[in-house]
Amino acid sequence: MKLTKIAVPLITFLPSIAYIPILIEILKGIHFGGLNIILSLITSALNPSLNPIVLKSAWNGLQITVATALLSWTISMFTGLVLGILSSDIFWKGYNKYSFIGKLLKIVLAIPRSIHEVIWGILFIQILGLNIWVAILAIVIPYSALTARVVSEQLDNIDIKPLIALRLTGAKSITSLTAILCPKLIPILSTYGGYRLECSIRSATLLGVFGLGGIGTELYLTLQSLEFREMWSCLWMIFGVMISLESLLNWMRYSSNKEINLKRYYTGIIYTFLLTILISLTWLYFREVDLFTPFNITSIYLPTISEIKQAYLELPLLNLIFSTILITFLASGIAIGTPPLILIYFPGKLSRKIQSIFWIFLRLIPPPLTAIVILFFTSPNISVAALALGITNMGVMGRLLTDSLYNKSKGIYIAMRNTGSNEKSATLYGILSPKTNTYLAYASYRTDVLLRETAIIGAVGGVGLGWQLQESLSSFDWAQVIVITSVFALITISGEFLCDISRKYWLRTTTNNSLTLST
Amino acid sequence: MKNIPDSCKKCGGPIKWVKSSEYIDCQYCGKRTYLDTEDLAKLKNQIYNTKVLLTSLYLKAKGSSSRFIKSTKFKRNKKLLFITPIASISILSIFFTYKLNNIDLISKKERIINKNEETLFIGAIPDQNPEQLNRLYKVLASELNEQLNVMVKYKPVINYPAAVTAFKTGNLDIVWFGGLTGVQARLQNNGGIVLAQRDIDAEFRSVFIANKKSSINKLNNINDLKSLKGKRFTFGSESSTSGRLMPQYFMNKAGLEITDFKGGTVGFSGSHDATLALVQSGSYDAGALNEQVWESNLKRGRINPSKVYVIWRTPTYYDYHWLAQPDLDKTFGEGFTKKLTTVFLKLNQSSTRQKQILKLFGASKFITSSHENYNEIERIARKIGKIK
Question: Is the residue at A191 inside a domain?
Fold first, then answer.
């Protein structure tokens, strides 16, 4: 008897099992008391406020947000690239003596990655005060670490034989490294870079709540006071920016696909980096943001060891960790499993276009809003938080999926269609299946992000480490904050370790994918 | 041919076509009908023409630019490619460092308008909608500007801990704080002067509300809060005085802990308005919020009395107030804090602008207050753990 093996594309559907417990929980508490609020939310989407006061301040805020996002994106891509190369194993192949530096760097980078931008923001305000650089730093630090991870892992997956060959012919290690690494960085930069820019716009919006300026102030105020019409004015504005950004990136990718000249490509990249820095700085300057206020560094109160110990004993850590992991698992199940499911159920070119707009739409809506909307027709529990987080991140995963399909040749799909298989199975085996590995790799990074984002959603059910972190921050209990952030870092590191193992397993078992499956 | 209509679009009467004409007027209603849908064709033609024009322009631009890139002139000057950005960056960095060292340049413009060089930064923990807020602080800033003769700038800070921190780091000079955040800010900053509060803040209350379906009865006294045991309950924001701290204090007083509710915990809706909407929808059985928000929503007709009602009003306590940095006199001149206080206290209904400010604050006047009023809140916050 043959061993049963799960078909590769089905692995991508597997996470959507998370829907079962969530739907059970949500259906249990379902009620229709909030129907009129949901209705008013929908009608105000079509009828946003056109009050000139609101529009003007939102427009001003949007410009600051976009400029901040551009600036922090550029810096984080650059530092992320450098850190990523430095922390990859392949870089240290030439200098075996010092290879521990790379490994150490990898572990150290897990700490900035495990803390959410908002938390970084609050910490930096403590030190630097209200300053636009707080927002920029708060985005740059976790994003650089995240980019560094993606870059280093993609680099470590490449074949090192050419490198060895080059080294044996007598090339210097730095020369051979440049020759090997540069071409491999292009796809990472073009796909991942564009995606990070959009993320940084969302983060910059979120950081607007600190009075650093930006559309986030308006957006979250309207959300708090449930002024849906004014909220939609802000949301549609951000939507416009995101749509134009996406089409711009697609256009750039399309035009750069034709001829890749390494030298010109890298000159182009250096240019784009410098230009964006200049443009965003001048933009901010002309929007009357105080770029040049000197920092007045305030010392922060550091808790003593005994206080930390006390905090550690006070917090119900086991319980908190359990619920946090549960939320992360359920949310990532939804986020990862849904896009492929929808792709298969609604195949076709037009529907894929509609899907990508739908994903933008989901990404646009901030998780607290999703949570409140879900709360309006069900009773509060852990699955509300999970579903809200899952829905926003579903948008991100959907984008990554459609993105990776863009770059793919459709040979298998066309062949299958011509031999007479129906559209659904052709999409499954011809389009989705070859991309499963990449998709799952990005999915594992996303799980990381989801863990961080529990910090901003936990408040809904009053559960999880995220909520406890907000509570401790608002009580200015630094000992507790230190304990919780280190627990976050610990979960991130161990989660990454598990993801590593599982990804290696999948990559090994799925080398010959689609063809063996269809027989 | 499909394009020939045989009846009038307006009245439906039959049309007889004369061979040579391009259009014909209906003999019944006079509506002119075109042989081809001419307007459409015209439009199509126009669109096509523009498209051709744009494409040709694009191709021309592309051709000339690629010719330029390929030309020897460009190749000779390839070094320029690197020199230009580096040069422009260095020029800009010189410019920026110059700016950094001469920050006065920026405020020069302001100095001409105002003899006083310092800017007063005001902040607030807002719980109003942005339209109202933008209006409120614009009006307030111009009022303060006129009366005190200093530049006034408003910085919105939505996040409670961030507002406290901004006060601590000295980024905000005067802040509109809630009871709890005001105490937190004073403790973090090692000082702060309570300027004034609204007339309603001296006797502030929270209301406990319940959904009709939850079958929670009106409470006669504080001990009846126990009947909320096992229900789904939500507070507002974690740092809110009226939406969390005081309600929790009264619950504890009645012998009710936050772990006594359904699911072993309470919810934090994030704002007073959200608490109200969530209880009204039935997602939560009960909740606690600011009395002022409840009243104003009642006036605006956002509350459906058949779905949600007040079960209990808490005893009064001190809430919102203006808190100022202790060293304002040093930066703005002797007696500035006093002047600032009088501006607030003298706000009245006589001037339209002042009337507007009072209306937006939801008060009829501002009254004096002192930090001793908040000792009770500090004690409660320490007990609950919001102040260490």
Answer: no
Q: How close A38 gets to chain B, by Cα (Å)?
A: 10
Q: Is B161 within the bounds of a domain?
A: yes
Q: B170: nearest CA in chain A?
A: A129
**Which CATH number fits the domain that encloses residue B212?**
3.40.190.10
**Single-letter residue type at B27:** Q
> Do residues B144 and B282 both lie within one domain?
no
Count up the domains in chain A and report the number: 1
Q: Of A129, A267, A379, which has the smallest distance from its Cβ to B283's Cβ?
A: A379
Residues of the domain holding B266: 205-313
With bands split at pLDDT 50, 70 and 90, how would you rate the model's confidence at B310?
Answer: very high
- The reply to whether B209 and B307 lie within a common domain is yes
* CA distance linking residue B32 with residue B21, whole number of Å: 12
186-245 in B: which are within 8 Å (CB) of A? 188, 211, 213, 232, 234, 238-239
Residue B159 sits at the chain A interface (C-beta within 8 Å): yes
Task: Judge whether A259 lies within some domain.
Answer: no
Does any domain span residue B10?
Answer: no
Contact status, residue B352 vs residue B142, Cβ threshold 8 Å: no
Residue B53 touches chain A, beta carbons under 8 Å: no
Query: What domain range is A27 assigned to?
Result: 8-47+306-519
CATH number for the domain harbouring residue A421: 1.10.3720.10
What interface predicted TM-score (ipTM) does this complex get? 0.83
pLDDT above 70: percentage of residues in chain B: 84
Query: Which pair of structure tokens corresponds to residue B159?
Result: 């996040």
Residues A340-397 pLDDT 10s: 888 888 877 788 888 888 888 888 888 888 888 888 888 887 888 888 889 989 998 8
Instruction: Check CB contact under 8 Å for A220 and B271.
Output: no
Q: How confident is the model at residue B242 (pLDDT cuts 50, 70, 90)?
A: very high
Q: For chain B, what is the domain count?
A: 2
C-alpha torsion sign, points A158, A329, A313, B185: positive
Q: Quick one: average pLDDT of A52-65? A: 87
Chain A: closest CA distance from residue B214 (Å): 12
- Is-contact A440 A398, C-beta < 8 A? no
Q: B91 exposed, middle or buried (CB, 10 Å; 0-12, 13-18, 19+)?
A: exposed
What pLDDT score was predicted for residue B114? 45
Count of H helices and E strands in chain B?
Answer: 14, 13
Query: Is the CB of residue B335 less than 8 Å away from at least one CB of chain A?
Result: no
Identify which of B131, B159, B172 has the shortest CB distance to residue A53.
B131
Distance (Å) from the alpha carbon of A280 to chain B's nearest alpha carbon: 13
State residue B126 phi and psi, 5-degree precision: -80, 145
Task: With CA atoms as reference, report the closest residue to A289 among A131, A120, A127, A122.
Answer: A131
State whether B297 and B236 are in the same domain. Answer: yes
Q: State whether B281 and A209 contact (CB < 8 Å).
A: no
Q: Looking at CA atoms only, how far is residue A288 from chain B in angstroms?
A: 10
Judge residue B15's burial from the number of C-beta atoms within 10 Å of its C-beta, 0-12 exposed, 13-18 middle, 19 or more buried: middle
- Residue A207: name the closest of A80, A119, A295, A110 by CA: A119
